[in-house]
Amino acid sequence: MPNDQFWLEVAKLIVTTGATGVAAWFGIGIARSQRNISAQQKNIALEAKQIAAAKLNLDLYEERYALFLEVWTYLTLALNTTADDHPRTDFTNHIPKAQFLFGKEIGDYMRDMDSKRIELIFLYKQSNNPPVDYATRISDLSTWFEKEASGCYKRFDRYLNFANWQTEDWAKAKLPVESK
Q: Residue 143's pLDDT band (boundaries 50, 70, 90)?
């Protein structure tokens, strides 16, 4: 009987070792699968990040382009009108948004443009019998608006150029750093 007990213990050991080996084999297989799934999840997350960045760029472009059109329209209308028939409230309400999307430089540019437009309207209203300096100033302002309207895109090019979309930091649009 002791011999039978020995073989029973050996059989238990073989079965236990075999079961442990099979469990280890499946565990390794599961670990490999989990590693592959993790790698796939990482790739999906990176693609989602790229898609989100592209969406941000598109949204930013659309917002910036809409403001660019407001500026260009304002410049063009300043050339084509002689009276206060273009509402400036909408334009001036866009200045904080423009400053946020483009930086202080564009906000200041829009304020300067609005000031010149107000001055031009005032001069036109006084032009029934204007002094010579009024006519000269009207001519200077008209020339300024014409020059700015024809070159408006150049001022906004760094914010609206599609070639810049290839860079990671395009969404920041190389905004000038404001010193405090």
A: very high
Q: Is residue 180 part of a domain?
A: no
With respect to residue 117, please indicate whether it lies within any of the assigned structural domains. yes
Please give the residue range of the domain that contains residue 141.
Answer: 2-172
In a domain, 177, yes or no: no
For residue 161, the tally of other CB atoms under 10 A from its CB is 13
Q: How many CB atoms lie within 10 A of CB 110?
A: 22
| Average pLDDT of the residues of the chain | 81
| pTM for this model (two decimals) | 0.68
Can you give the pLDDT at residue 125? 76
Distance CA 122, CA 166 (A): 46
Instruction: Name the amino acid, one letter, at 60.
Output: L
Helices (runs of H) and strands (runs of E) counted in the chain: 6, 0
Cα R_g (the chain), whole angstroms = 35
Say how many Å lie between the first and final Cα of the chain, rounded: 95
Selection from 156, 73, 155, 157 nearest residue 117 by Cα: 73
Model confidence over 99-125: pLDDT tens digits? 999 999 999 999 999 999 888 888 877
Number of domains in the chain: 1
